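Homework-ish question, so no full write-ups if that breaks the rules, but can someone show me the predicted structure for this set?
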Amino acid sequence: MRNFMEMLHAKWDEGKFVCVGLDSDPTKIPESVGKGTVSQEQIVEFNSRIIDATRDLVCAYKPNIAFYATYGIPGWHALRNTIDWVNQVAPEIPVILDAKRADIGNTNRGYVAEVFDVLGADAVTVNPYFGAEALQPFLERKDKGIIVLCRTSNKGAGEFQDLTVLGQGPLYRVVAQHVASEWNKNGNCALVIGATYPAELAEVRGIVGDGFPILIPGIGKQGGDLEKTVNAGRDSKSQGMIINSSSGIIFASDGEDFAEAARRETEKLHNGITQILKGAVTT
Amino acid sequence: MRNFMEMLHAKWDEGKFVCVGLDSDPTKIPESVGKGTVSQEQIVEFNSRIIDATRDLVCAYKPNIAFYATYGIPGWHALRNTIDWVNQVAPEIPVILDAKRADIGNTNRGYVAEVFDVLGADAVTVNPYFGAEALQPFLERKDKGIIVLCRTSNKGAGEFQDLTVLGQGPLYRVVAQHVASEWNKNGNCALVIGATYPAELAEVRGIVGDGFPILIPGIGKQGGDLEKTVNAGRDSKSQGMIINSSSGIIFASDGEDFAEAARRETEKLHNGITQILKGAVTT
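A: Not a homework solution, just the prediction itself:
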């Protein structure tokens, strides 16, 4: 039986922290695969060549469902076949479906079936706004990872997330505290903190402690600094991080060498993290 | 060109405030349509018979995408064909896709395409947690309705939504203020407030003023009281409300008379609202 946390910890033990974001916007897929007129098979070809070129270096893959949903049925098939491909060629690597789902409890059962049973993901991102009571259908799936938005990577994230809650500090901190201390009864929770906010990342690591996974998007194109990110996000065992890069890896080249370029960028990120963790680079 | 706000105001001018929630869980569809082994055609048959039986009484239809997504591809087709059916037989009635979407800006473009361009909805529900900057791809669609979660109907909604923001009151109030005063530059915003929280509903009506649409789920099965809801949610022109009922209408009967039963419940709700607005019932 696949178990997200066990799979993730096994990858951490191998020193792997890179997550490749398969945000395979069909308008950006290299011409050699079929730019402009991409079919579902071409999206899967693009993804599977990236997966084949990077799977010895990563701790997870993370397709964002929005980039597939925009293409309707062909996109849906492409997403499902991409997840199947990971399960086939790299069954030890977990797939995080980045879907930011949340609704009231009864309705969440539909999303749980979509994400885990129909699409076959090992983990999902969820939005905390409804509270834990509504998210029970997700939280009760012990073998799956439930990754809760905390401090998102976008520029305007602070509009609500930074609001000061009376006697408790900023809202994102309250979310982190609730998730770590109350939501995590099955040991299946994680948090999302953008690499663009290293101070908040360090603060949240202090709240959640060792071994608690933090998914960190925003490295690269969005401007997150790797050294600050790793030093803020690592736990005392130099683990706990899922460091995501999407377009910086998958669209590193728009030529025929896109898979090699993706590997090069993944390796660069992996080596960078390794060096920082070894203390070869210090802040 | 279809415009959500104009369509909604036209229905309000006809005195119509009921929204039928097409949460057509295939496991609950009457046996006469095909319980247990429902196909996409049977889901559409069920929905279209409900639509045909209720369309002279409602201001909107609101399918929740989770109940379709749980069935993968057949569900996707059923959803799209249901929206097409409304557009065909009742082109004057707007369709709200209840999808609670939200991501960072670039990614939201995928969802915007999914909801408006691929599925053809007139409005969508969104989650405020990322802030307005991220939701721009939604907010800039002037002809579409962007309905922001504010105080949701679930029991545990208060976990974060009721937190007191320093100097500003509860979080849901801050969300209402931001949406009404800053997000609504294109006049296309609305809010979601659960019928289960009439005091909060009255408070938010005071913040957003006349004409601002509030989508109100939670009547019926979830326990919301109609009289309290209408008196709290109405604006000074006795308009401004989209009062949703889902299973109370669509699953009113599990027999062959399900469409007639749905009409009876819709009429009951419509008449109840009308009586309350006329002041025949007072609190």
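Now go work out the reasoning yourself. Hint: The first strand of chain A starts at residue 18 and ends at 20.
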